[in-house]
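Blinded run. Sample ID left blank on purpose so nobody reads anything into the name before looking at the predicted structure. Input follows.
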Amino acid sequence: MQLNGNLYDLIERANRALGRLDGITTLLPEPSLFLYFYVRKEAVLSSQIEGTQSSFSDLLLYEIEEVPGVPLDDVREVSRYVAALNHGLMRIREGFPLSLRLIREIHQILLSEGRGSKQTPGEFRRSQNWIGGTRPGNALFVPPPPTEVLTCLGNLEKFWHNQPERTPVLIKAALSHVQFETIHPFLDGNGRLGRLLITLLLCAEDALSEPLLYLSLYLKNHRQLYYDLLQQVRLKGDWEAWLSFFLEGVMVVAEQASLTARRLLNLFAQDSRNIEQIGRAAGSVLRLHNLMRQKPLFSINYLDFGQKDNSLRKYYANLLLQP
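Blinded prediction complete.
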């Protein structure tokens, strides 16, 4: 497709923002700490777009086997999102290509628990679905019939691998998301998986060394415009409006993520300086602080010091209970 001058400018600016975000990983002493929070934030936001009520704290409570404040099915769905993303990234880093087989694997994990667990996880649909309305006849949008799903997906898979021609990575991510949502290949989970696809594709193409770009907050904040632009592509072929929106989102989200990473680094550094000033207990408190950087919410039983270290366990418990 031919791009106008404004889109070329947006692509350049979005690529620069993405490059700055990728460079942040070299500044983080432990990128896994930042990713721990960031991946879970994305899981919560992406699931909220689909109507779940789970919050970030609910997810953390669920992960330490405590009781969250919302229905368990909601939290399970969010937890499955984290597991699905981690599985996809692991497979890509092992050298497995972004493919329909991988998409099915990710979908299997995404819907293995929660309300979608009976919607044939890991299997492309064999029946007609629709978006909005009560039946295809009054629906807002009707995806391709099940007999055409594999053909459409096969063409999308070729596009991921630059057939018939190479496509710039951000344009590829933008177009792939629309096409996946338009094909709607599963009975459930298409929205969440379509948003995951953006990050997975950027990592598979080495545009990001770590999964640091997530558009769910941007899409949630502009939900109606997001849906309208998807529909305008389907009805009128208005790709340029969608691309402008997508590239603007990449810039906004990449810059916010870079700022958040820097603020987190500054916060950790300031906390360490404050702890070092408390005197004799500083060493023990710093160890607890390092643990809490890795897992911000946990029970005292998580502090595994062995049977001979009950005094140290009690000491840490008292620290946790202090205001």
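Unblinding after everyone has recorded impressions. The chain is about 65% helix and 0% strand.
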